[in-house]
Queue: 3 jobs
Job 1
Amino acid sequence: MGKKMIFLLIGLVLTASLAACQPDNPPADNPPVQHRDDTDWKWKLLGFKNSSVDKVQVISDGRAFALSEGKLYFQEEGKWKETHPGVDISTFYPLEKDGKTTIIAGGDNGKVYLYPVEGDSWNEARFQAVPEPIDIITVSLSTGEIYVGQSTKDGGGLWRSTGDGTDWKELTDITVRGIAVHPEDPEIIYIVDKLTYFSTDGGKNWTKVETGANYGVLIHPQYPDTAYLAYAQGMVSVSHDGTVVSQQQFYLPGGMTRLEFSPVSLNEWALGIWDYPSGVGGLYYTFNGGGHWLEVEEEMKDTRILDLCFSKDGKTLYIGTAGRGLWALNIEELKKDSKITRYSAME
Amino acid sequence: MKKTIIILIIATIACAGFITALRFFNEAGEVLSGTRFNWYESKTQNEIENGNKFAQERLSKKYHVFVNGIFVDIGYDWDGIIYVPIRTISDSLNWIVNWVPDLGMIQLVKDNQEAFVDIVNFFGKGYVPLDRLENLLSLDNVQIHGGNIEIHKGSGIKQSIDIRKLPRFSFYINGMKMTDNAVGYQGEKLVPSRIFALSFGKVFKYDAIEGHSYINDSRIDAVFIGGSAYSTLDQLKEAVNTEGTSFQFREFTPDTQPLRPVIDKGPEEKVVALTFDDYIGDKVYPLLDVLDECNVKASFFIIGNSIEQNAGVLEELTKRGHQAANHTWDHYNNHTLTDDEIRAQLISTRLFTEKYGGKSALFFRPPGGYYNDNMVRIAQNVGLQTVLWSLNSTDADPQNDAKHIRRVVTQWVHPGAIVTMHTGRDATIEALPGIVENLRDRGYRFVTISEMVKLKGGD
């Protein structure tokens, strides 16, 4: 009798209490924020705590660039440095060339501005679109050419610069919200807005892709034989002759706000989902090409994702949010996590 | 030491008792009738209540959308982005609007222009951000002021007569109040053309470019009052077959009638009402056969726009003794509609149910359980009593199979349960025989909603 029996009884009571309190559907587990040391962390709030981050980009040395409320910020000696060319910025792309980084920024006024990170001044490019916000800027990975797209009610188009932003040529007056350039063959270009078009001759001629999927377009840097066209609930894959190869629906509770591929795997995607009428959603992640989706709750629960960007090694996901700042998620830690809800893609 | 041991033994016994009671509650909901407590029933009520509270909050920042001066629909501010209904606005600017189900997108077509648009779907209505629509339709001007969004395109802006300067009337169709916004103008009584058309299940279109109104492609004469098209009854009868229908204008008087109670449960007797919501179609026939085999009469809450094309189904349903009640014309969330639009949704469904089914049960179930006191009063104005449910069978989720549905219903049934199920679900049909057998074995009998209301002491 004695202590042994008492411990046994305590164990019995605790077991019974736990069993009695177990509900049919246990509520979602929300562990506390996990800030660990520099080598073993899962979430990091990088800044902009109560602000929105519309766009985030990361360059080869790991420095992040963020667009928040019309102003550009970049990391310098561990701190955020603010800069803007005197007008609100609507989008940007950090161009890395010859060991130097230049920010190519689109203004709310339809102009393009250049900012060498090593310098400290903005230069206006000899470029003018409709005096409305520039929608997208991207760069060809094979040539470093800069592409600018715009879509407004008064028109828009696609422009290309072959000279680091100093000279510009209009490729088409089709309005553009999304651009993807083949990472190895710069002649293959996709543009999306009201419809989706592709060119196989560097933008001289454009052919319509027979799909309505026009949310955005992605070409994986390591597996570039297919273009992926997103729509609110899924994705369509297209070969470079314009043939729709497959369609995949995600069956997630809401519409897509952002989709990004891991640069090191064609099967790893990060996805922002938001249901506007109900005001709920968050971050989803797949390790098997959309076969199963993991609802990454914790810091992203019911958070509207505005932009996603992987680090070059695919180990860190940078997440721009509406009103909750800029976060980094350690993908290696995510893989270990079992406290995630799984959704199955239904065939 | 002895004292501690005794305390621990008592605690153990108490826990064991609690576990047993919990199991008992979980496995046999009806045992709890004496305590008037059923966890699932309470959960169901909370879900409906919280859903309504949440919807009203999300829809509280609303904008009335006018195209060239004429009201077309309502938009909302969600998370700082203004969303507007794409179909009504595009249609008024003469874009053909096609739904592409594979992609969940809208295709817009006009002349040689084409665009695909991602939408946010809210109870069957598609919404897009206002600035996206502005680009897509190349709108000339969009102004937001007060609670209004004014969209201008072309030169056809309509000037409206101020409704506040005109005498107001209430207008009734077959004794059902259609609107309190009928007016007297230049010696004639006029009714809102759009609401009249919707009340007869017709398509109303306002061509904002030409400035003309149409009912099912027939142009109607109209004057514009308070941002809406108004016509005389004679003008409207030219576009709508109103044979066998009576109309009445009454002096506008505030409605002070007490509200009839919302029925969410029957009496504390071992009776159960099986109810089936949504569209009718061919899949209702096997459901009717199973109900016959089980000798159960059920209540159907039917979406009105599925009636005319499935008139034979409705006829068969009522012939076999089931009740046909009202689930609105389009199954929209009622919180997104104006009062007159809700009335039109109910009137059209009731008119079609009576036309093709011979009679309708005078009950209304709000889609998704989205309702408030105002909607209960509106339903009452149309002669309907509002009915919810106390036991959600969960068959609306396509992932739930027959076994799951049967388990939920048999586990959580309670005296006076109103079970909500849905038409067009194979799993529901498969689950029914097991549910009926199980409940009958436990002493339950099956009734319609009308019978349940009578048992409860209602009309």
Job 2
Amino acid sequence: MENVVAPAIALTLYLGLTVLIGWYGYRFSKSTPDDYFLAGRGLGPLLLFFTLIATNFSAFFFLGFAGRSYHVGYSFYGIMSFGTALVAISIYLVGYKAWQAARQHSIISPPELIGVLLGSKALKMVYLAVMVVFTIPYLAIQPIGAGYLLERLTDGAISYYWGAGLLSIIIVFYVFFGGMRSVAWTDVLQGVLMMTLMIVAVIIVADKLGGIGEANRQALELDRSLFSREGRGEVYQLRSWISFSLLWPLAVPMFPQILMRFFTAKSARALKTSAVLYPFVTAFLFLGPVMIGVWGNLVFPGLSGNAADQILPMMLQEFAPLWIGSLVTVGALAAFMSTMDSQLLALSTMLTRDVYQSVLRPAATLQRQVFVGRILIVLLAATGLVIALQPHDTIAGIVQNTFSGLAVLFPTTVAALYWRRTSAKACLLSILCGEALLAGFVSGVIPPGWTMGFEPVIPVVLAAAGIIIVGSLAGKQSQGRPGS
Amino acid sequence: MNLSKLLRNGLFWTAIFTLLCILALDLGFGFEESIGPLGLPGWVYYLIALQMLFALLFGVFIRSYWKARSEGER
């Protein structure tokens, strides 16, 4: 009985507060696509910063980082943090231009942005398809994370399946009613909880191991390779470091939930502030789960594959009093929920605007579009849950494939925003060839040696950019409406 | 608007600078021991310092660029 009370109180308080904020957001919302999907384009600097952070830091941050660091050591900190700091550049470069164009042409979804700027319906649909195909597996890792965490915290009283389901139902509730405004407001609560409670987790675990310095000394004695820059098994050589440092800034702004965040900014100042603050947070915050993952080798040696994704809750269960473990679990749930709600809303926005309204029912009223968007949120959450029932890979593995697939869209997006000569046909070819090349590398059809030691995404993005440049110079300029 | 152009280039050079730092990290710094009160590998401190430097440079660039831009518009 005692084992259930503390988690139950912490969870009830957190979920209750989230639903309350979501409901409050609903009371302020209007039934128009601009308001439901983009919070009336009125997010100020602080709200935008927190919603960007909370949206981008997911189950991967709380569980995936610790799981991967358990296997490879501190090398994973470098792999994740440096490239994520560079995301600041893409927030500014892509975000500002996208924000300008979205305001100028009343654009709501990312495929709409490309369709309007380059004047091609075919390109818009392919861009949409890539975003949907690669976002859904990433969406599924959030209920996977929640399932793991709640099962571990409650000693199996809440099973993996029920945990995953509970999280999805709560999210659907407040996204369904409040749209982007509720998502952004809950993101502030979730962002603060996520950051604070990760710090609490590190302090508690380190204290039980004799302090941060002592825990690291023991880990170094256990296995020196956990401290090397290449990582245990020398998995991250210099070219991998360069690849990942480029992958994150190329891929993060291509997530539909992030690209849509740029449209919600109230002003250019909001975007600038978010870009500048971003690297300060990542440099320190990412160290927390990585340290816990490395120290996990001292307490639970020999975990293999995706079993290590549970190392953070295992460490808390081992060392933290139940009530603190419950609080930190709330922080992790906040990370999952703040990403999943944004993914659901972004996918629903794209399918409503770019399939339902654009193809199936061009005469649909604004209220009808919002209604369809809400139904889609339920269906998409159910899809994510079905995938979560049988996780096929580690969290880090799912994320890497997702990021690589979306990074292929980067050259098209930048060209559409910055280069007036861009040809839509060249962009179309760039995306199709890029994804085919990526599939070739992942499936092994193309020999791994062709990447010259870099991650496949690097040659793929270079090829995609080359196709756009050559194709646009050789072909005809598109008939779209360029941004200002 | 020479300043504006200069600062625009600054963004590009910031990116190049950070990549060069990664190269330097691999070529010249052998801090793989656990050091300092936190016992982290030396290169982790170096990486945190680099990120702070990048964040500061980027912040200064954005601020200066927008100042120059708004002065130009006036």
Job 3
Amino acid sequence: MDNKKNILDFIKPVKTNVPKEEFFARLALNIAKTEQIPTNTEKNTKVRFLTFVYAAAAVLVIGFVLFQQFMSPSVQPSGYEKYLAKLSPNEILEYVESNIDDYSEDELIDASLPITEEEMESASFTEVFGYIPEDVKKETLEQYLDEDFINLNDFDENELLIF
Amino acid sequence: MTERDHKWRDTIQKGGGKAEKAFQDLTKFYGPKLYTQVYKMVKNDSYTKDILQEIFIKIWLNIGKFEGKSSLYSWLYRIAHNEALSFLNKEKRKSSISLDQNIIELIPGSKELQGKGTDEILSLLNQAIANLPEKQALVFELKYFQNLSYKEIQEITKTSQGSLKASFHIAKEKISNFLILKLNQSPLV
């Protein structure tokens, strides 16, 4: 053999007599008509499983969020405080006068207990004394102090600072 | 996978009348290539047509599972090769099949090929191809036996022409070495 030549150069492929195009067209048509493509059950099962997993995950997330909301204390002011703030002092006094008989002596004593020193130090004025309506004038406050024989000169500077 | 192959696969997967048309187009395009490949192995037109039917049934039923990571032709080539081998093993007809037409011709001038028959050489050639990596085997098949241009092979395999030329060159060297080794052994396997 000539060393420069590859052995395959001495082997010549003969062109194969391939059937005509109609043969292949008919073959495809026969197969398509007689063979039923199976539905991909494995794929369907996979899809169903994934749907279940996603649904379960969604339920867990929603449950967790609801649980968190349920467990955390509400920071919203109660409706009772909101409505009280809207009332004028006169309206409150009228209500107390007309309903005072509904309360027992003990309940009234509890409600009128003086504020302790600790509470005074730790709490702000509004927390201790509650809401002061905007329409309470300086004269009204002075009148209240006179009527109750409260002399501001009896208080030292620190005690007055809470006002 | 080429855009055309993608379209064929997706249309067949959806089913219906369009699927039949797409399958026909696919069979008309790849059928002749697979026929040549199988015929070279079984050397008989009637058997080749039977095997081809089995191949295309497999393609029709399973193309939906083909993910398209390789070229469609690589997948078809593998199916065809396995079907032909399975036929030959089952029927034990490797050496008893009547040869309808010559598949190769021997050109005088080679010391190694002197006195050898075309059937013996073709059998060795098939063995050599079967030992190649798949990509090299299908490039060799399309270039050597089907005489396609690199441009045509590029369109089928979606591989650059440079890479195809390298694959063909390597395949040719490996087959040549295999043939020389086997032909120098006596008796011929």
